[in-house]
Amino acid sequence: MPRAEVGSQKWLANKMKAKGLQKLKWYCQMCEKQCRDENGFKCHRLSEGHQRMMQVFCQNAGRFMDGFSKAFEHEFMKLMRTRYCKTKILANAVYQEVISDKQHVHMNATVWVTLSEFVLYLGRSGKCKVEHTPRGWMIEYIDQDKIRREQDAESKRKREISLEQRHQRLIQKMVEESRKRGGFQEPEYTPLMKTSDEKLRIETNLAKPAAPTVAAPEKKGNIFKEFCKTAKPSSISASDESQKSGKDTYKRKSAIETIMEQHNFKRHMEGKGNETQGAEAPIGAAKEQSWLMKGIYVKVILQSHPLYKHKCRVIKTTDGGSQALVQDIDGSSSYKVDEKHVETVVPPAGSTVMIVRGQHRGSTGTVTESNPADLLASIKLDGGKMLENVLYDDFSKID
Which residues form the DNA/RNA-binding protein Kin17 WH-like domain (predicted)? Predict the structure, then answer.
């Protein structure tokens, strides 16, 4: 009887039957062919294609065995991770579900001869918890991702605790130094002195309502004219009436009136220019707040910035020093950053730095000693003056 034509329905049916779940001893893993009986398996072993595959297998048997073993373990652990991640189940039940797939890798092609050896391997490698019971081997999946997340959270918590301890030590050291200089005074707690026969008195400033008075009959006139006369604002008459009657006649301003007054006051202050002292105050405040200077090195701390955690050199400053144009060390790119998105670069002892804050702002010197635990350093200026306990934020590295 001739063979079915390739691609026909009969050929496809034969292929599906050949890859079906039948006896494992009649399955060839190298050729991925399932034979129906012993005679068919014998004919397959004597075929030319099987002989070529066996020659390839003999050249590097270990590589093929490891590949089949990894594929079988991957399918088994994938099923454990997705379906039985939080339950304890028989290993044989999971194995039966694995081999129900026609395309599965047979255990006969792996390095494990029996299912018990494979279960013991999972227990030794820490991938599953295994337990031998009268029913058989029970296994339970160990979530490595959860353990890794817990370890990361624990390490993060330790880093936060260490940072908080460093701040506490710095504050405690500053308190001790202030106590030595006499600038720190311990609070004194005194007991509450109160006699038993003392009376409690609560006073309120509520004004008593005025007694109703009977007004004398007035002459008849135009009511609207009288109302308009009394409604005219007069600060002098209002103050006199408040003193006479004892009532508060202050009228609250509306929100619109308040906004208009603030706007007029702002325009008035801007018109004065540099003649008034109020115009000089914001400039001085801006100079004190800005610390960026040309030539210093800074480190970008904004996570969304392309140069995040990169050390850059300030080329020039803009907007009164609140922003700066920085360039990478290798000179590949330049960006404009804000001063709150960068921090100073603290070099090791012996390096040249520039003071960016305080009365010595703009002066250069050399780092003689650094104390990372307290975030302090000692700097010797070029003029010979020695600065002690300088904060890391008050100086930065220069060329």
Answer: 52-176
Measured CA angle at 208 (ends 202, 213), to 5 deg = 165
End-to-end CA distance of the chain: 90
pTM: 0.37
Number of domains in the chain: 1
Spatial CA neighbour of 393 closest among 326, 359, 343, 342: 343
3-class secondary-structure state, position 243: helix
CATH number at 314 reads 2.30.30.30
User: Are 170 and 177 in contact, with CB atoms under 8 Å apart?
Assistant: no
* Residue closest to 115 by CA, chosen among 96, 87, 134, 102: 96
CA–CA separation, 185 and 123 (whole Å): 64
The answer to whether the CB of 324 falls within 8 A of the CB of 314 is yes
Q: What is the pLDDT of residues 344-391, one digit of tens each?
A: 999 999 999 999 988 888 899 999 999 888 889 999 999 888 999 899
Q: How long is the chain?
A: 399
3-class DSSP state for residue 141? strand
CA dist list (Å): 19 to 3, 24, 75, 230: 18, 11, 18, 106
Q: Is residue 382 part of a domain?
A: yes
DSSP secondary-structure letter at 392?
G
